[in-house]
Amino acid sequence: MAFSQSVIKNPTRSVEEFPKATGTVYLKGAIIAKDLGSNATIPATSSTPRSSVLGVTTEAVAAGDARIEVLGLEIFSNDEFLADTTNNSNVAHYGQRMVLTNSVTVNNTGTDDANGLVYQVGVYGDAADKKIIVKFV
Fold first, then answer.
1. What confidence category does residue 39 fall into, taking pLDDT thresholds of 50, 70 and 90?
2. What is the pTM of this model?
3. Contact in structure between 83 and 132 (CB atoms under 8 Å)
C-alpha cells in the first residue's frame, strides 16, 4: 500500500506535476524527493533529508514511460498518512521520528532518530499488519 493520506488538512489541494527522472521507476504512494544533481524528482531513500522531500506519488510510473512528469500530492503541515512499516506497529513508538527503509516503507526501529522524516501519531490495525499513521517532521 505504501503511503496513503488518512487526514486531509488542506481540502483545496490538487495533484501536482513533478519532473520525472529518466529511466526511474515510481511506485504509487512513494515518497519523492528532489534529486540534488538535476531538476528531477526521485524516489526517497533511507538517507533522504526532510528538506528534499516534495510529495507522495498518486500513480505508478514505469522506467520506460516517456512522460516527463510524475503526479503527486504536495505534503502540508499536519497532513497524516497511513504508512507501511518494516516492523510490527507498536503504540510505544508514538512521537518517535523515523527514517525510511525505502520510498514506500517506514523503518520503525523503536528508537527516536534525529534524522527522521516522519513521526508516528497512531497505529492502524493489528501489530502484524505493519501499518502506522505518521506526520512529516
1. confident
2. 0.88
3. yes
